[in-house]
Input
Amino acid sequence: MKKIKITVMRKARYDDLIEKYENPIEHACDLQEGEMFICEGWQKPSGFCDSAWESISPFVMALAHGGENFYDGWMKNPKSAMISCNDGFRPVSFFIEVCE
Output
């Protein structure tokens, strides 16, 4: 299996939605932009958010097993994907790529 690099590219925060709909949460996301993780195959990296892992793990698994070219040319690099976690209040975008 191939090693996969995950880079935290962007964090968003929708304070209007949080104020209107969410109960207060401490430490909802401790990831930082620019932070990188290396996956040995399909193993979740230590310290990686469980919820975010649920969103990106199918793409990590596919890339680790040699998959590429998701959605017929979506990404400039066919051995990569840009996936966001499923937190609608503070989504985080991850760039996932095969380590060559």
The mean pLDDT is 94. Residues 3-98 form one domain. The two ends are 12 Å apart (CA to CA). The chain has one domain: 3-98.
